[in-house]
Amino acid sequence: MSVEAQAAPREYRWRMPAGWWVRKRHYLGYMLREFSAAPMAAWMLWLLVEIRRAADGPAHYAPHSSPAFVIFSVIVLLFSLYHSVTFLSLAGTILHFKILDRPVPSRLIVLAMFGQWLVASVIVAFVLVWFAR
Amino acid sequence: MSTEARSRPALGHLFWWFLFSQGGVITALLLPVHVLVQGILGPLGIVPVVDRHYDTWVNVLGNPLVKLYLLVFFAFAFFHFAHRLRYFLVDVGLHAAKSVPAQVVFYGGAALVTLITLWIVLTTAPLSFG
């Protein structure tokens, strides 16, 4: 037996060089997309606070409406649209299935995902607006 | 071979990946409309929105379906965020984010937000079916 075979198996650890993601625009876009989950999580924590404010009672209830909050929401909306569009477009690549032995075209899958997004958005918007009357 | 003997299904990874992918779908479908309506159109007064007034907000929050919806939405979204941000840190070179303590912090944080959401939806507005 050779010396290599006797030695305990060693793991080859590949490490990305530091700052790899600033080298190409695509990498930077990917990392920006990943990071933008943080402001989106912050926005949802705000929504949680808004829900909790309903416990303040009618006299003290005050919804969030500062210009800074609206600007923050605009930024979060742009990020979340970027996330949704890129993620739902990917469905055509990820999902593969057949109906009646024929593969479903990826464009149809993507279209179905966007249709689902539209339906969900309309329902949520309807509830949020209709019950405000 | 020693490599075969050591390989085992990554059940933990499967579990977190399931929560991550479901969270991705749910958040992608639901978050933009909430941000648009409650974060922009409502505060600017372009459309009436339930959370602008106490009465309508409490009325909607009292609905059991709304409570269930909020709990599912927040739970999946935050497990998704936890997984994503943990791997973001790995990507920028912070390999400690792969460790068990880091997993406890991130997924524990998501579990904490889920519990807080559960507490809030159960205690904030009394149940109503109207």
Defining traits:
heterodimer; A: mainly alpha; B: mainly alpha; 0% strand; elongated
Note down, in words, how this protein is organized.
- Chain A is mostly helical and 133 residues long.
- Chain A is 64% helix and 3% strand.
- Chain A has helices at residues 3-6, 25-35, 37-53, 67-94, 106-130; strands at 98-99, 102-103.
- Chain A has a two-stranded antiparallel ribbon.
- In chain A, strand 1 (98-99) and strand 2 form a beta hairpin.
- The radius of gyration of chain A is 24 Å and the shape is extended.
- The model of chain B has no long low-confidence stretch (mean pLDDT 85).
- Classes of the chains: A mainly alpha (133), B mainly alpha (130).
- The interface between A and B is large, with 54 and 58 residues.
Secondary structure: elements and pairs:
The complex is a heterodimer of chains A (133) and B (130).
Chain A: H1 3-6, H2 25-35, H3 37-53, H4 67-94, E1 98-99, E2 102-103, H5 106-130
Antiparallel strand pairs in A: 1-2
Helix pairs in contact in A: 3-4, 4-5
Chain B: H1 2-6, H2 11-41, H3 54-61, H4 64-91, H5 100-123
